Amino acid sequence: xxxxxxxxxxxxxxxxxxxxxxxxxxxxxxxxxxxxxxxxxxxxxxxxxxxxxxxxxxxxxxxxxxxxxxxxxxxxxxxxxxxxxxxxxxxxxxxxxxxxxxxxxxxxxxxxxxxxxxxxxxxxxxxxxxxxxxxxxxxxxxxxxxxxxxxxxxxxxxxxxxxxxxxxxxxxxxxxxxxxxxxxxxxxxxxxxxxxxxxxxxxxxxxxxxxxxxxxxxxxxxxxxxxxxxxxxxxxxxxxxxxxxxxxxxxxxxxxxxxxxxxxxxxxxxxxxxxxxxxxxxxxxxxxxxxxxxxxxxxxxxxxxxxxxxxxxxxxxxxxxxxxxxxxxxxxxxxxxxxxxxxxxxxxxxxxxxxxxxxxxxxxxxxxxxxxxxxxxxxxxxxxxxxxxxxxxxxxxxxxxxxxxxxxxxxxxxxxxxxxxxxxxxxxxxxxxxxxxxxxxxxxxxxxxxxxxx
Length: 454
What we know:
Elements: E1 19-25, E2 32-41, E3 47-54, E4 61-67, E5 75-82, E6 91-94, E7 98-102, E8 107-109, E9 117-120, H1 121-133, H2 136-142, H3 144-160, E10 167-173, E11 179-180, E12 192-197, H4 201-206, H5 212-216, H6 236-241, E13 243-249, E14 256-265, E15 271-278, E16 285-291, E17 299-306, H7 309-312, E18 315-318, E19 323-326, E20 331-333, H8 335-338, E21 341-344, H9 345-357, H10 371-388, E22 394-400, E23 406-407, E24 420-425, H11 429-434, H12 445-453
Antiparallel strand pairs: 1-2, 2-3, 3-4, 5-10, 5-12, 6-9, 6-11, 7-8, 7-10, 13-14, 14-15, 15-16, 17-22, 17-24, 18-21, 18-23, 19-20, 19-22
């Protein structure tokens, strides 16, 4: 019997999708109805759970869609500048926990006041107008002054759609599952900025995220996942030679699988931890690299010129905090796109190409019916192929504030590599803040505790 992914595309090749039927309470008549659950993948979006409820007693029906993806480690704040009517047509993905703000008109849609949806910037404005107009007839009879104020505000929202002057729309989502289309992708969007932030404890609780100690009321000292290794218990060779395995779910289809983890040493650099996941169900393969050491005292900026086949074979370690840029292609890749990788220059370019072609993430390029966006996308993929064939010379730029990224030199240690430029720099306050270093106390940290106890 062949196994199938948990989340599958709805196609003619799969005419009998697996639907789970659960008996559940009807909130309308308090009798028992049926809830049907379907795990599927929406093209150009993500994996979702489609829920359909129906009650034979009163005829009540309800449909809802919930995302099934893992909640990212950080929230996201997106700011888009609207300069013309074409920008109003940008696709927009918002979750239940998205707060939307238009500062120019003092307009805000609070978090959890609307269900998550896939819409456009204009669709957000139209939905707000429809919601405000819904009870206006009753207000005009009971509270005329309030109705006039709302009519004035509705007019200001209508004027936004004419884009007579630029305005901003801000999406702040603590779940990190919101997104605004970039029509110039994979090039940088000059009108849209992304900012990631660390959630507070209250925001974690709002998402239903609790630590082990909060759930079990256990102290960290009483039960910990990691235990100290006694001196001499294991040699370094034992640790580096051991491959650890732990259970996880496939990031593509959600099927249970295993991740292998191993420590290895990169010559002339440092120890790193390599994690690889292979799914026997859908065939998806992923690998990720994390530094085996801590954050370096300085950040690192690396530039390498790729001119021939030999340059494509250089080893590359791109950490999960490293930004990647190829100026000749106007390509900028943030640290969250590719994650940590230990590969070659050729492998890095292939990873970019594969991720752009991934059907689960290709929604970032908009509707495939948009011929201009489609032509731009295919042209960019052609440029990547030409780079791999050495028809185009490029420069790969890695900027890692943690200092944990690396590109191999093709010369001996005492000889300079003219095509490789490495610069170490002091991190800015904002970079230290993003890394959580500003509030970290590493010297005399026990003095305050001793002083308080006395």
